[in-house]
């Protein structure tokens, strides 16, 4: 059922004569998004006291409110204060509490931006912010700083700057469209953009990160899917956080995308009092894989301003991973990551499985607590790699062009480079050495 009683009631409060075709029209949903407390109260019948309403007003002045009628219809009104959808969609005054360690731009996305709209953090891929708007303002948004800035979808001339950047950087093989929500663009504009990006010879894949299947599943129309299909290989990542978000409508949207041949992934954020429970997470990942969505990342909540009430200790995430590894299908298990404050990128975190190690044995433990040993080979001959494929007996010559320089920890492991340590730029001991030499 795509139009249930709650939805009918909400629709009739928005417009007396609302047809099912209106409800399922994504533009109707956007036009009628709920962005004031008054409208929220009118539609849900929920009523806040005077004091709370004033606090909420202050909160929404700083971090605006916007909920699609569809997503609003998922809230359990009789128990709304504990409802995971309510908590993600409707703010609370705790958002105004900022902590000293919180940052406006914790991931330094703006600092790592060579041109407007592009964050270039990793060697071979870029994040391209193609829209500044979303259909629903998630209260846990990591880009909370930008929410409610003048809403805009960049003009083609602005997007062109990002396209030019990708075109002039041949190492970029993967372009991730993000935002805001890229699916806030019209089909026409999105097609223009995809056409431009996919015609760049060195771009191998494009990805779209969107929360539409969760908060506005009617955006996934047949027309959109048939347009997107022209730009394969196109990967799509969405953002379900709780099993309650998997509904008839969202399943239908996911089925359209999966049938369109897009590999689907999901990025969840670990949120206190929403999904910080191994059982909820397990149910979520099971529902995702039933709908052909592969759990991709589980994010530790970022240090953005106004998110302190959502943050859990990292131990909670490790506990959840412990409850998934071995306990359920390997492909149902996301990678738990912490996006490094300051712009270091995503760092994967796992429980420890290696217990000990000697020259020829590794001691490991499994999910049941069984301790086992793996005997390492006696006869393995380490291959010296000086990155000269012509002199190597492995049957794949990698041209120099395809191999960028080794960087980071990989460099410490490499044979061709004699770097033995990585040293922070402001190392006091080494600064002393320099002075010593000068004297
Ligand atoms: C997450 C992210 C990516 C993509 O990372 P993957 O691990 O490849 O999914 C790229 N750029 C930025 C800035 C990111 O935050």
From TrEMBL:
<keyword id="KW-0479">Metal-binding</keyword>
<dbReference type="InterPro" id="IPR025895">
    <property type="entry name" value="LAM_C_dom"/>
</dbReference>
<keyword id="KW-0413">Isomerase</keyword>
<keyword id="KW-0408">Iron</keyword>
<keyword id="KW-0411">Iron-sulfur</keyword>
<keyword id="KW-0663">Pyridoxal phosphate</keyword>
<feature type="domain" description="Radical SAM core">
    <location>
        <begin position="120"/>
        <end position="332"/>
    </location>
</feature>
<feature type="binding site">
    <location>
        <position position="138"/>
    </location>
    <ligand>
        <name>[4Fe-4S] cluster</name>
    </ligand>
</feature>
<dbReference type="GO" id="GO:0051539">
    <property type="term" value="F:4 iron, 4 sulfur cluster binding"/>
</dbReference>
<keyword id="KW-0004">4Fe-4S</keyword>
<dbReference type="GO" id="GO:0050066">
    <property type="term" value="F:L-lysine 2,3-aminomutase activity"/>
</dbReference>
<feature type="modified residue" description="N6-(pyridoxal phosphate)lysine">
    <location>
        <position position="346"/>
    </location>
</feature>
<dbReference type="GO" id="GO:0046872">
    <property type="term" value="F:metal ion binding"/>
</dbReference>
<dbReference type="Pfam" id="PF12544">
    <property type="entry name" value="LAM_C"/>
</dbReference>
<dbReference type="InterPro" id="IPR013785">
    <property type="entry name" value="Aldolase_TIM"/>
</dbReference>
<dbReference type="Pfam" id="PF04055">
    <property type="entry name" value="Radical_SAM"/>
</dbReference>
<feature type="binding site">
    <location>
        <position position="141"/>
    </location>
    <ligand>
        <name>[4Fe-4S] cluster</name>
    </ligand>
</feature>
<comment type="similarity">
    <text>Belongs to the radical SAM superfamily. KamA family.</text>
</comment>
<dbReference type="InterPro" id="IPR007197">
    <property type="entry name" value="rSAM"/>
</dbReference>
<dbReference type="InterPro" id="IPR058240">
    <property type="entry name" value="rSAM_sf"/>
</dbReference>
<feature type="binding site">
    <location>
        <position position="134"/>
    </location>
    <ligand>
        <name>[4Fe-4S] cluster</name>
    </ligand>
</feature>
<dbReference type="InterPro" id="IPR003739">
    <property type="entry name" value="Lys_aminomutase/Glu_NH3_mut"/>
</dbReference>
<dbReference type="InterPro" id="IPR022459">
    <property type="entry name" value="Lysine_aminomutase"/>
</dbReference>
<protein>
    <recommendedName>
        <fullName>L-lysine 2,3-aminomutase</fullName>
        <ecNumber>5.4.3.2</ecNumber>
    </recommendedName>
</protein>
<keyword id="KW-0949">S-adenosyl-L-methionine</keyword>
């Amino acid at each position: 059922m795509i139009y249930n009683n709650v939805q009918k009631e909400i629709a009739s409060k928005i417009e007396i004569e609302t047809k099912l075709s209106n409800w399922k029209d994504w533009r109707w949903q956007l036009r009628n998004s709920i962005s004031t407390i008054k409208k929220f109260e009118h539609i849900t019948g929920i009523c806040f006291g005077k004091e709370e309403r004033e606090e909420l007003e202050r909160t929404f002045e700083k971090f605006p409110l916007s909920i699609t009628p569809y997503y609003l219809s998922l809230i359990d009104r009789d128990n709304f204060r504990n409802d995971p959808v309510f908590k993600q969609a409707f703010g609370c005054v705790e958002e105004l509490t900022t902590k000293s360690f919180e940052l406006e731009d914790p991931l330094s996305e703006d600092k790592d931006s060579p041109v407007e709209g592009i964050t270039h953090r990793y060697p071979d891929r870029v994040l391209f912010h193609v829209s500044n708007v979303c259909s629903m303002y998630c209260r846990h948004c990591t880009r909370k700083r930008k929410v409610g800035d003048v809403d805009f979808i960049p003009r083609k001339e602005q997007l062109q700057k990002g396209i030019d950047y990708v075109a002039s950087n041949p190492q970029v093989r993967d372009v991730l469209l993000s935002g805001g929500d890229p699916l806030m663009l019209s089909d026409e504009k999105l097609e223009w953009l995809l056409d431009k990006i996919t015609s760049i010879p060195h771009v191998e894949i494009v990805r779209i990160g969107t929360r539409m299947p969760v908060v506005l599943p009617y955006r996934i129309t047949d027309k959109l899917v048939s347009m997107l299909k022209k730009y394969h290989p196109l990967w799509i990542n969405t953002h379900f956080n709780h099993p309650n978000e998997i509904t008839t409508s969202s399943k239908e949207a996911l089925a359209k995308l999966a049938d369109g041949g897009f590999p689907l992934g999901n990025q969840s954020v670990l949120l206190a009092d929403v999904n910080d429970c191994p059982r909820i997470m397990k149910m979520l990942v099971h529902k995702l894989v039933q709908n052909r969505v592969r759990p991709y990342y589980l994010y530790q909540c970022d240090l953005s301003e106004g998110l302190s009430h959502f943050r859990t200790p990292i131990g909670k995430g490790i506990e959840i991973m412990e409850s998934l590894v071995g306990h359920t299908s390997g492909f149902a298990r996301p990678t738990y990551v912490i996006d490094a404050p300051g712009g270091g990128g995503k760092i994967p975190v796992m429980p420890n499985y290696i217990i000990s190690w000697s020259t020829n044995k590794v001691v490991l433990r499994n999910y049941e607590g069984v301790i086992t040993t793996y005997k390492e080979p006696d006869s393995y001959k380490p291959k010296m790699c000086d990155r000269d494929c012509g002199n190597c007996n492995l049957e794949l010559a990698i041209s120099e062009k395809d191999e960028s320089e080794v960087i980071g920890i990989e460099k410490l492991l490499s044979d061709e480079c004699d770097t033995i340590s990585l040293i922070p730029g402001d190392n006091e001991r080494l600064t002393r050495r320099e002075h010593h030499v000068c004297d």
